[in-house]
From TrEMBL:
The record marks H140 as: Important for catalytic activity. GO terms for molecular function: (3S)-3-hydroxyacyl-CoA dehydrogenase (NAD+) activity; NAD+ binding. This is 3-hydroxyacyl-CoA dehydrogenase. The lineage of its organism: Bacteria, Bacillati, Actinomycetota, Actinomycetes, Micrococcales. Residues 4-183 form the 3-hydroxyacyl-CoA dehydrogenase NAD binding domain. Its EC number is 1.1.1.35.
Length: 282
């Protein structure tokens, strides 16, 4: 599977695009408008700097070659016309993902494999909208994919086992360690562990128990972990926890969403990729 299309060029979408291109794949980056896509060169420069810092063999030649393998378009039919595999990384809302796949199904080649990078939603809730449920499954990436390189592969009851294995092999080809999730699980393995941890930190913050800095300090000193939960929030970016929390059944998490919106998102403090979140990275 040489030709990849990524739907959505946000924090994680852009990382998947760059990592795949760095690994030698030809990648089409799709987003809704030319204005969004016009900002991608800045994102590539940010990622090139991250690779120089964290990836030992990241020469200028390899980084420039990665950028040369990326083509951007706001035309969906054009974006998917030659795709062997499509990875969707649109906002974490079921209705948006369902509508996106309905549109993709109408224009993508029959041979193309469809993958969602959803962090929390089940493939079985999206599969009926893809027009090819047997060729649809999840391929989930951790943030900062060049460094935290798990690729969680999770199908649904109707996923073709051969397609499942093809996606696991593809994940390995782009530098991921394939994690085969044997049963549909909200949050896969990683987020089943991570989300309760982050929610606990959010509750401590919202209830005024401690500041984000002191919550992080407590965790890193007491456990030896390199970062605390609010550093992780900054890496993830504010929009994902906001979308996951704003309609939560838990009033504390709804309050956390309000805090994120008022004190961070509305001020442009969208996380590490934007230069500022709970911490400043400028």
């Amino acid at each position: 599977m040489q030709h990849l299309t990524v739907l959505g060029t946000g924090v994680l979408g852009s990382q998947i695009i760059f990592q795949s291109a760095y690994s030698g794949k030809d990648v089409v980056a799709y987003d809704l408008s030319g204005d969004i896509l016009a900002k991608l060169p800045e994102r590539w420069e940010y990622l090139k700097a991250a690779y120089r810092r964290d990836v030992p063999d990241a020469s200028e030649e390899k980084l420039d070659a990665a950028v040369s393998r990326i083509r951007a378009t706001a035309d969906l039919a054009d974006a998917v016309s030659a795709a062997d595999i499509i990875i969707e990384a649109v906002p974490e809302r079921l209705d948006i993902k369902q509508q996106t796949w309905e549109k993709v199904a109408a224009v993508a080649p029959e041979r193309t494999i469809f993958c969602t990078n959803s962090s929390t939603l089940l493939p079985s809730d999206i599969a009926p909208f893809t027009g090819r449920p047997a060729r649809f499954l999840a391929l989930h990436f951790a943030n900062e994919v060049w460094k935290f390189n798990t690729g969680e592969v999770m199908g649904h009851a109707g996923t073709d086992p051969e397609v499942f294995e093809e996606v696991a092999v593809f994940a390995e080809q782009i530098g991921m360690v394939p994690i085969r999730v044997n049963k549909e699980q909200p949050g896969y393995v990683l987020n089943s562990l991570l989300v309760p941890f982050l929610n606990a930190a959010a509750a401590l913050f919202v209830k005024g128990v401690a500041s984000p800095e002191d919550i992080d300090k407590t965790w890193t000193i007491a456990t030896g972990a390199p970062v605390g939960p609010f550093r992780i929030y900054d890496v993830v970016g504010m929009m994902t926890p906001y979308n996951l929390s704003k309609d939560s059944a838990d009033p504390t998490m709804r309050e956390f969403a309000e805090v994120l919106k008022r004190d961070y998102i509305d001020k442009g403090y969208l996380g590490k990729g934007a230069g500022r979140g709970f911490y400043s990275y400028e």
